[in-house]
């Protein structure tokens, strides 16, 4: 079992508190089941999803330095459950830690902006960590395996990592950015069978969806078809933006590519929590656009 209690400054992000409320719900339920304490950063702001820097790099750095400083005030690591938030905030943290030595005057500009918002300065004393890495690295796969009450042995799961999680930061603690295995290892720990397919490390198409919808849907459709062809019962993603394109828009994607799809897409904490014995209604599994009923039937619900 886990040798120490785990506590994080929890950055829920925007999408999990809106369009993917089930992610917020299932993250809280999973943390409670595992005895992980989440201190939600109620005053945190949107990370910008990589768009702030299109107007100003200083804007992206300052906004996310503030988010990180809120966690530093608590002397806790900042926990995300969104690949995009992880990529953006983690990248800013890497940049600013380097700039504290290379360009301290720039850090002074950041700290002045934070001071104007009545926030403590950025110290670079914490780390930014996705829930996936907290489960794999901090809690541990062996400890997680010991907590499984409902092995997911009937499920074949295809990971969809999200490109921001894999390649936005210069270093990854538990993965190769081009051949990651942390999600597949996690699937095996909860009894599921990992499915390997080409699109699992690629972009879901969400960043294109507002101005190149057809291309975005083609990308999503290709990934879903490849996962189905590989025998997957579901996709599992650690990114709510990927979830929006792969689940919420899957009927439109199917219409665009002219092929039936109907592949359920789970949030990572939903899958793990099911294996721990939590009930579907605790995890918001009725909120998905593509029904999760086929998965639940395999698990004898």
From TrEMBL:
- Which keywords annotate this record? Oxidoreductase
Database matches in Pfam families = CCG
Q: Which Gene3D superfamilies match?
A: 1.20.1050.140, 3.40.50.11810
**InterPro entries cross-referenced by the UniProt entry:** Cys_rich_dom, HdrB/HdrD_reductase
Give residue ranges for domain Cysteine-rich: 8-89, 158-247
Q: What is this protein called?
A: Heterodisulfide reductase
Q: Name one GO molecular function term.
A: oxidoreductase activity
Q: Which domain of life is it from?
A: Bacteria
Organism (species): Oxynema aestuarii AP17
Q: Which PANTHER family match?
A: COB--COM HETERODISULFIDE REDUCTASE SUBUNIT B 1 (PTHR42947)
Q: Chaperone: is it a keyword of this entry?
A: no
